[in-house]
Specification:
Immunoglobulin-like; Jelly Rolls; 6-stranded antiparallel β-sheet; 30 strands; about 25% strand; binds zinc ion
């Protein structure tokens, strides 16, 4: 029996491991096709133009081609890790990635010697050099790297381009994210040049684990050529097997990559069968535009196609290497590089902590040269100053505190002071419950700051506001509307600290809400989070998307939505992990765009011993999922595990 359990466990682990490795190298063909479908006429017109210049390039065999320099900027989209950790990858890792790209595009990569004899003679040299930009779009000194805190980085997609973007007629933008949106499910992607019109934002999005061979990257053939593969697409290469199709389909034998010297094939994935003949002739599995685990080369035909796109106005690739652009971006070979003054920046993940608690502050400075030195000052904190890169500070009184950082490099010293950088709370709660009906016209002020709710003020957008236009109980409620929001700012409504030490599980936060969509563009999200460390970290307990928020049956309401009494619904959040905690804060976080009003009312706490009876417990428990021992949804199995929405997990055995 013991053996059986071990086998089951191993099978289960294997399933998980397999699922993790299943990430596809690239999604360019899928996303480029989606863009094509949005505007096929434009795409085909672009493609036709590019094809005609490509034919010329093949005929002229690229006479007189000289080395082309491409200015590059890496935008590191991180979620609060220090520089050099996880997705906030180090400068060295980025430089290593650029080195690998240059080796691949100048046919000097060491694994090129592994290419089998049959393909040695058609190895292509693109003669392209990637260089980190030294002048940014504002004319300032740069190291060609930016670092931006972005909450979306663990499901990275084209939204990154709205957060930070350098003119793509001057720079190749590469956004490095924590991971790519699961619905895309790839290590990296870009768009071929024919995609989109003049306003389309071109560039490459890559998972940080597929950037460079050091740090969080890897020296596997798979990883070390990922960015070169994407650059191949960026310069108009398709996968070796087809334009739009997925890898490994037998129908790929009837499709083409528009390059004469790459043999017809179906493509291989995560394997290296050097004698594969998937369409009747020997496959070039070592081609960088394949998904094989031993890729190393471009062919001469692919090089001609890339160089043609570098000479075409389609997708503006031709602008990148022009002499005046190289001077403007500081990448011209004769440009005298200077050390930059540091771009000083720092942060703590959520901007608050408790009194007498250590808080680590993270340096996020870039353009910081080779050996930067740091000098911090913490007025009101202990210690009052520090020379550490990521110092720890402690405050003994509640309040808002300024923090300053000076960074010195060979180029000089720059400094930054952020006023009210950190909020320190006294987490001695005076409340042992919540029962908020938004009845007081003074809300959120209660007369005692320790029992006040908090609303984060936003400079540019309206936020949560008490209203008497509608309510589920009494005469007031709170509401917010995203109609004029950008979709990028979180609007927070936070409870005072509450003492849950008297609460026995289950503990639940109930609230009533009402919402209507404004139109099909409405895209709203309400998240409820809990913190027991004064907001230094938050745990997500529930998120409600636009569809889940709707309480009016689903019709669009273009005028101001005011719910009637039947348009309110009740929802709850399970707080079991915090039952017994002495100081808990709850946050209603809202962001969105194009929506109508969301109303919330009657926020209250209940637990097994306070206000919650067994009927309610049973009524609200919903079965979410049943899985078997291998993690599959399989209702025929004898041994199965049930997951409920209140967090309960029940293991069952059918006799
Ligand atoms: Zn690809």
């Amino acid at each position: 029996m013991k053996k059986l359990v071990i086998i089951f466990t191993m099978l289960f682990l294997n399933t998980l491991l397999y699922a993790q490795n299943e990430i596809m190298p690239c999604a360019t063909h899928i996303l480029s096709k989606k863009e094509y479908e949005k505007n096929p006429d434009l795409f085909l017109k672009n493609k036709e133009k590019l094809d005609s210049i490509t034919k010329l390039f093949n005929l002229n065999t690229r006479k007189g081609w000289s080395q082309k320099i491409i200015p590059v900027v890496f935008h590191i989209m991180h979620e609060g890790n220090p520089v050099g950790e996880d997705e906030n990858i180090s400068k060295e890792q980025i430089e290593d990635a650029v080195r690998l790209m240059n080796e691949d595009f100048n046919a000097t990569n060491s694994d090129l010697s592994n290419v089998i004899d049959e393909f040695q003679s058609i190895i292509g040299n693109t003669n392209v050099t990637y260089k980190l930009a030294r002048i940014d779009p504002n004319g300032n000194c740069t190291e060609g790297i930016t670092r931006t805190y972005w909450e979306g980085t663990s499901s990275g997609n084209d939204d990154a381009k709205q957060i930070i973007f350098w003119d793509d007629t001057s720079y190749l933008n590469i956004w490095v994210v924590k991971s790519i949106d699961a619905s895309i499910g790839a290590a990296a992607y870009t768009y071929v040049p024919s995609t989109g019109g003049p306003s389309f934002r071109h560039g490459i999005i890559a998972n940080h684990e597929y950037v460079g061979s050091i740090g969080t990257g890897s020296n596997s053939s798979y990883v070390r050529h990922t960015l070169s593969h994407e650059c191949g697409h960026f310069f108009n290469l398709e996968h070796t097997w087809a334009e739009w199709a997925d890898v490994g389909l037998s129908t790929n034998c009837n499709q083409d990559d528009f390059v004469a010297d790459t043999p017809n094939c179906i493509g291989s994935y995560s394997s290296c069968n050097l004698s594969s003949q998937s369409c009747g002739t020997l496959d070039n599995v070592q081609n960088i535009m394949d998904y094989a685990s031993c890729t190393a080369m471009f062919t001469q035909g692919q090089v001609a196609r890339m160089q043609a796109s570098l000479n075409s106005s389609v997708g503006d690739r031709v602008d990148l290497w022009q002499e005046d652009n190289l001077w403007a971006t500081g990448t011209h070979p004769n440009y005298q590089e200077e050390e930059c003054l540091a771009a000083v920046d720092f942060y703590i993940p959520n901007g608050s902590s408790c009194v007498n608690t250590d808080v680590q502050i993270f340096n996020n400075t870039y353009n910081d040269g080779e050996n930067p030195t740091y000098y911090w000052t913490f007025p009101g904190g202990t210690p009052p100053n520090s020379f550490e890169e990521n110092p720890i500070v402690n405050y003994s009184s509640p309040g808002n505190y300024n923090v300053s950082l000076s960074v010195s490099t060979d180029a000089g010293t720059t400094y930054e002071t952020i006023n009210n950088f950190v909020t320190i709370y006294d987490n001695n709660p005076i409340l042992s419950s919540i029962n908020e009906g938004f009845e007081s016209s003074n809300f959120p002020n209660s007369g005692n700051t320790l029992s006040d709710w908090e609303i984060d003020e936003q400079e540019t957008e309206n936020t949560w506001n008490r209203t008497e236009l509608a309510s589920s109980v009494g005469g007031g409620s709170i509401r917010i509307r995203s109609r004029f929001f950008s979709g990028e700012i979180n609007h927070n409504l936070m409870s005072p600290f509450i003492n849950l030490s008297q609460y026995e599980n289950p503990v639940r936060l109930y609230f009533d809400y009402a919402y209507a969509r404004r139109n099909s563009q409405s895209n709203d999200l309400l998240r409820i989070l809990v913190s027991n460390d004064c907001g230094l970290s938050w745990t997500l307990r529930k998120d409600l998307t636009t569809d889940e928020l709707i309480t009016n049956g689903g019709s669009n309401v273009t005028s101001v939505f005011v719910p009637n009494s039947s348009q309110w619904e009740e929802e709850y959040v399970n707080l079991n992990p915090w039952g017994g905690d002495e100081s808990v804060k709850i946050k209603f976080e809202f962001n969105g765009e194009n929506g109508n009003y969301l109303y919330i009312d009657n926020i209250r706490l209940e637990s097994a011993n306070i206000g919650l009876d067994d009927d309610i417990i049973g009524k609200h428990k919903e079965l979410l999922k049943t899985i078997d021992i291998l993690g599959r949804e399989n209702l025929k199995t004898k041994f199965y595990i049930e997951f409920y929405d209140d967090g309960t997990i029940i293991k069952n055995y059918k006799l």
